[in-house]
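### Sample
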Amino acid sequence: MVTPNPFGTEEENMQKLKEELKAWKERVVEAENLKGDLLFSNACAEEECANAQEELMKLKGWQENDQKDSIIYRDNLEDQLHQLYRENTELKKDIEKLEKELEELSSVQARSTQIQKKVAGMKLKFSHMEGMSNCADVDTRCVFDANVKIPFRLNQNQALLTFEDEEVAQRLIKKGKHTVNLDNNKVDVRVLPVPLDMGVKFELHVTVSGRKINVSNIPELPIPEDWMRDKLELNFYKTQKGGGGEIENVTYDSESRRAVITFLRPGASNSFWGSPKYPFFANGRCYTLFVSSHADLRLKNCQPYCGVSKKTILLKGIQEVEEDEESIQDMIEIHFQKPSNGGGEIENIKYISKGAAYVCFEEDTGSAI
């Protein structure tokens, strides 16, 4: 009996070894493939990591630039804010300065207005009547041309000369410098044009009411205002005593002690013309009221103007001499009246040796008065 070989035959063993070797080779190939895949994946990952780091560095650079830009922007805003603050402070100072100047100008203007009211005045010239009809019971309307005189300040050692012919004044101004004999002293004076401040001319439209009258000097009585209105209405209603008849309205001001009476009948106010005093009976006494026409004044066609006087010259540089002011003025007038000196007939002359004075001009003539 033959005993079997537990390990098989040698050929079988060789066959098994070949199969195992083949299996291992296949595994090695798979491992190599896997290794290649892993190496490729690793390379891709490293590339992505490098790209990510590069992007991160870019982002950091951008962030730093943004921070720098934001810092620069913030610094610029702060500089602009400080600049605006400084400009605002300067503007406030300028505003305060302008307000002070405006206040000073207002005070100067107020003083100038007071001087103008006192010195200059206003020239009124009747122009025409408006809305005239044959009925005597309507309002009376008339128009006046008003021309405000222009004040001019004449300072110390200065003179104003107004000539009849404006060509004489313009010829003297064109020459400029003149030598005048004052008290045997030759004095060089300058001849200048006279610039005028702004003046105003306008139309004054006056409407005298045919139904209203003004009443003043109303006595103070210990009665309510509505009672006083009733008494005034009753007093001026009485036609048999010179009243105006039925009354439409009575406006009474207790502080000024004045009233405006409005009658129903047109032309009723004509009854009081020429009679400024009117009796008023109250509390057993007779008082005297003052009655005047009720006029409405309106300014129209107001036209400001300014310029240079064509007929008047201003002399400057007149030196002080021993002669009195009137004598110096006569010497100046004699000099500029002579045609040999380029002068002519003088309408008016004003010389100031000390202080100052205001001389007024009229727009229509350009003459000093």
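Residues 146-200+301-361 form one domain. This sample (N-myc-interactor isoform X2) is used throughout the tutorial notebook.
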